[in-house]
Amino acid sequence: MTSQNEPGKHMSAEVSAQPAIFAGLVERRAEIAEVAEQVRRRKPRFVLLAARGSSDHAALYAKYLTEVLLELPAGLVSPSTTTLYGAQPDLTDVLVVSVSQSGGSPDLLEVTESARRRGALTVAVTNTADSPLNQAAELSVDIGAGVELAVAATKTYSATLLALYLLIDAVRGGDGEHVRNIGELAQATLDGSVDAVAEAVRRYRFVERVITTGRGYSSATAAEAALKLAETSYLAARAYSGADLLHGPVAAVDAETAVLAVTSLGKGGAAMKDVLDVVHQRGADVLAVGSAASDAAAALRIQVAESAEEVAPILEVLPVQRLALGLSLARGGDPDAPRGLKKVTKTL
């Protein structure tokens, strides 16, 4: 069933809306800073992040931010340890951040309620201010992306990244300097990547197997890229960190493999150079995406506007979303309504 006879129109509009959403979210930085101040006063010793789906990739990004910028240990929650196995660890002085675009996942709700009972400071980061998750958490951050009509998350994912960055940056005492013009950078990225994305759609229209890879902060973008390609174009897409790719999976890379490599300026992008050299030597067709794409060993490159490395994932994902949209349409699909998927997936 197509989206009102125009496949992809919602996803296309929502991708294009992101620069304005980013600018609006930055303008609301003071609201997020108030939440951050309460976190700072509690002085958490550890951070746990709970999420599912695309939000799980946003949580992975937040894990890197927490460990690098706050120098606090951080981990990703396995909700089933609470919902299926009933584990009740002591979470005194622990910050639990639950990330959910809808705020309606029963397992995340249970994790948040349980964590709060066990002494954690709980923060919900959602796109639905009146959601059950927001009500369950002690504090909440509204990402303010507006209603998302396409099943595949685009604007809610990127806005979640930005909201998490603003929160963590404020906890460390930052002033949001690196994202002050993020809306302009996002628009420049979307405008400047149109031709390269179109060429990538033509080049990879008939591919069936894709590996996505990145390092550091960009690991989250690689994971989200694999999910978007799988859910919109039904591709067999698998994400690996650049380091893990060389520890075995590279053996499966050959001339029939398309590799989407996320590489932006900074330590993570620099660490991808050796990875791409190896993959390129194995004959893989490499598509490099990021602000360091021009220096990558690749068959095709999609350049992204330069930014501080810690905020690059907010920009890197934009042409990836456009690529997923274009491939889905080129392959006869409707990315607004992928088969077998719903907007909110409820798991226990």
Automatic annotation (TrEMBL):
SUPFAM superfamilies per UniProt: SIS domain
Molecular function GO terms recorded: carbohydrate derivative binding
Family annotation (PROSITE patterns): SIS
Any single GO BP term: carbohydrate derivative metabolic process
SIS domain: residues covered: 35-177, 197-338
InterPro entries: GlmS/AgaS_SIS (IPR035466), GlmS/FrlB_SIS (IPR035490), SIS_dom (IPR001347), SIS_dom_sf (IPR046348)
Source organism, top-level taxon: Bacteria
Keywords: Repeat
A family per Pfam: SIS
Name by which UniProt lists this protein: SIS domain-containing protein
